[in-house]
Amino acid sequence: MLTLSKGLEIQVQNALEKAFPEAAAQALDSGSKLNPQLVRASKPEFGDFQINGALQLSKQLKTAPREIAEKIIQELNRNERFLTICNSAVIAGPGFINLTLQPECLTSEIKTRVKDPRIGVPKRNFIDTHTKYSRVVVDFSSPNIAKEMHVGHLRSTIIGDSLARILEFRGYEVLRINHIGDWGTQFGMLITHLKTVAPEALTKANALELENLVEFYKQAKQKFDSDEIFQKQSREEVVRLQAGDSLSIKAWSLLCDQSRREFQQIYNLLDIQIHERGESFYNKYLANVITELTDANLLIVDQGAKCIFLDEKKNKGSKKSVIIIQKSDGGFNYATTDLAALRYRFNQVPEGDGASRIIYVTDAGQANHFEGIFEIAKRANWIPKGGRIEHVPFGLVQGPDGKKLKTRSGETIRLRDLLDEAVNRAEVDLKLRLQKEGREESEEFIKNVSTTVGIAAVKYADLSQNRITNYQFSFDRMLALQGNTAPYLLYALVRISGIARRGGSDDLNIENLEFNEPQEWELIRELLKFDEIIVEVEEELLPNRLCTYLFELSQIFNRFYEQVPILKADMQNRISRLTLCRLTAKTLQLGMNLLGIPSLERM
Ligand code: ARG
Questions:
Q1: β-bridge pairing 397-398 and 471-472
Q2: Residue 26: how many CB atoms within 10 A of its CB?
Q3: Residue 126: pLDDT above 80?
Q4: Hey, whose CA ends up nearest to atom 8 of ligand 1?
Q5: Is the beta carbon of 279 within 6 A of some atom in ligand 1?
Q6: With a 6 A CB cut-off, is 184 part of the ligand 1 pocket?
Q7: Do residues 283 and 176 both lie within one domain?
Q8: Is there a single domain that holds both residue 386 and residue 293?
Q9: From ligand 1's centre to the CA of 168, what distance in Å?
Q10: Distances (CA, A) of 562 to 78, 557, 559, 566
Q11: Do 249 and 353 belong together in one domain?
């Protein structure tokens, strides 16, 4: 109801200023405004909105709150525009004003939304004209070469994709960036090790499976930690790689390709669009980072390493934390690359991305890292005016025992296996249900439904949790047809679309909608919240709000459906109620789409 509340805000502001012209003029002189504190009603009994400002204004206006409220109400009731939006302004308690929207107003919103593909959600620049249309970098997924993509990367992928979808829908230009770990000392050891154990992997594509590569990487790391000659060789190899030696680069790029293919399989399964721009991309900008930080007088040399010391706020400023920007051997760190990346993203095109907002989606364990990076960027003056930079942290994925998710034999779970299992279980569930319902369906139908349901279940289970908390991974829970799950929502949508379809032709004549039942009004008010929810999710970067909303919407719909006749109602009511079915279906579909969950026609 953003448009309605905007309109209402203007009328309420006017009424307050008319009621107290002197105070309003005074406020204006000092560059401010009297604040009516218009907010959403805290309970349905209070109507749709409340004006809470009278209590605070009381001191300033030297008038009792109830008297202030009375005066505002008088002005409101004199205003035609206000009366088309609200039907009553009622004083309550010590001086609150409760406002209830006109039924015609709500009905007309419903009419507009059924016809609107955006269902009332404005584009970003529609409301906030002061923030110009802008570019946002969403840095998510970002697994590491020669290592398996793990559940932490899965969370980042799912959350990042949903945030990117919501930002895109709001009218931002989003750069979806995969900041993969494809650079650094680990390649020196890996290449050196492969030279003896699997030289073909360094010259031929597809010579290894990713599992083998991961295994070789572990061996190389062990050797590196115990064998001095190997260590020296590895370091020399890194130098060759960083200097662009063609054989080293060739070997490196083959290894990257190998991992990339594996990652891509996961992205295909999850339907993720992402642009790879790994750490290696910033290699050529690292030296510049050092120069700029030096020029800004931020670097301190400590035992040969170039460092930045930061105050640790949490420790009341007593402790300092240190970030090493360049090691004593000249090498760079994860942090250095992130500084170069940040710099590049905020820089104007063509030297950079020209972004005005950067969002990093990683586990909460990297919170300190990003806090440090952001602090350095601030000191170095790299964040443009109005630029926003946010770390979007998330908790751990735990097994049913509350410990870190592992296979039965204690190994890390491969993402492919995890997703395959979700799909397989969805298939078992589906076949059982088909049997119970006595339905025969094609192989193709079964494959399609179980893949969609299985993947949706994994995504939704992740998104519906407040991302900051740890979450317990449970196939049984995420695949249940009851509760706040993807199968429940997918099913609700199929059923609602079915009802809407059975109601006949696509173009209902919605000119004369009429609603009388409380269940109808409850559903209408819930439907009209959609735009606010999307704007809120975009602001707070919490997709679970959208999940909760969609779940509540389908529950409110159920109540309406069970208690009010639809297809059997008389013509006028039938059309009105079918319209609500249609809008509910549309809202669920768009909402799920913004979570990265496709809908099904039948299931
Ligand atoms: N590759 C890192 C990891 O696996 C995540 C990178 C996140 N993005 C960034 N700009 N640091 O933990």
A1: parallel
A2: 13
A3: no
A4: 179
A5: no
A6: no
A7: yes
A8: yes
A9: 22
A10: 42, 9, 5, 10
A11: no
Other C-beta atoms closer than 10 Å to the C-beta of 194 total 24
Cα 42 from Cα 7, distance rounded (Å): 20
Q: How far apart are CA 71 and CA 499, in angstroms?
A: 49
Q: Whose CA is nearest to atom 11 of ligand 1?
A: 338
Atom number of ligand 1 nearest to Cα 338: 10
Dist. CA 399 → ligand 1 center (Å)? 23
Cβ-based burial of 509 (10 A; exposed 0-12, middle 13-18, buried ≥19): exposed
Q: Does some domain include residue 141?
A: yes
Instruction: Evaluate whether residue 124 is within a structural domain.
Output: no
Count up the domains in the chain and report the number: 5
19 residue type, one letter? A
- Would the CB of 360 count as within 6 Å of ligand 1? yes
- The per-residue pLDDT for range 517-559, each reduced to its tens digit, is 999 999 999 999 999 999 999 999 999 999 999 999 999 999 9
Global pTM reads 0.93
Question: Domain range for residue 423?
Answer: 415-464
Q: How high does pLDDT run on average in the chain?
A: 92
Q: Within this chain, do residues 561 and 587 fall inside the same structural domain, yes or no?
A: yes
Please, are residues 388 and 357 in contact by the beta-carbon 8 Å criterion?
Answer: yes
How many angstroms is it from 562 CA to the middle of ligand 1?
A: 49
